[in-house]
Amino acid sequence: MSHLLKEHIGAISPLSDEEFDYILSHFVFKKLKKHAFLVQEGNSVKYEYFVLKGCLKAYMTDSNTGKEFIYQFGVEDWWITDREAFFKQSTATINIDCLEDSEVLGITLENREKLVTEMRKYEHFVAVKANLGYISLQKRLQLMIMGSVKERYENFIQQYPHLINRIPKSLIASYLGVSRETLSRLYRS
């Protein structure tokens, strides 16, 4: 039987069924409805989540204006959490909520560290994913600092073609750091 998490880890560190079953036993399954919070600002963050189904957004809210600033989406085969709060075992400074009904697997920091210590394959997987995440973040920051709105939008389309029709344009605009109107002008040109 195929499992999305097994395929995800196996792309970096191939696993036997027994190894995967052991890894999976360290995760908890959560099912959430559209608009439900996975992580809420001010609450503790006990899990790092792997998305099995659905679409989520991670964002900060400006306390003065109420405006949302989206910094990450999470869809099938992606990881999402408030990383700082998860690793420092502190309270969340962001919100993560569901744009669609969603299903996730959550792993505690304790279980994550246990697997990294016990299994070389899982340790390798975590290290590779961390490096890829840093590379992705670096590219995103470079585009936000140096890229034009058009370049940011075109990069988003190229990098995430499966999200264009799945996520409302106003949320894509927030992710790109522009207004919905500015994004609309790009569609027309």
UniProtKB/TrEMBL annotation:
<protein>
    <submittedName>
        <fullName>Cyclic nucleotide-binding domain-containing protein</fullName>
    </submittedName>
</protein>
<dbReference type="InterPro" id="IPR014710">
    <property type="entry name" value="RmlC-like_jellyroll"/>
</dbReference>
<dbReference type="InterPro" id="IPR018490">
    <property type="entry name" value="cNMP-bd_dom_sf"/>
</dbReference>
<feature type="domain" description="Cyclic nucleotide-binding">
    <location>
        <begin position="30"/>
        <end position="116"/>
    </location>
</feature>
<dbReference type="Pfam" id="PF00027">
    <property type="entry name" value="cNMP_binding"/>
</dbReference>
<dbReference type="InterPro" id="IPR000595">
    <property type="entry name" value="cNMP-bd_dom"/>
</dbReference>
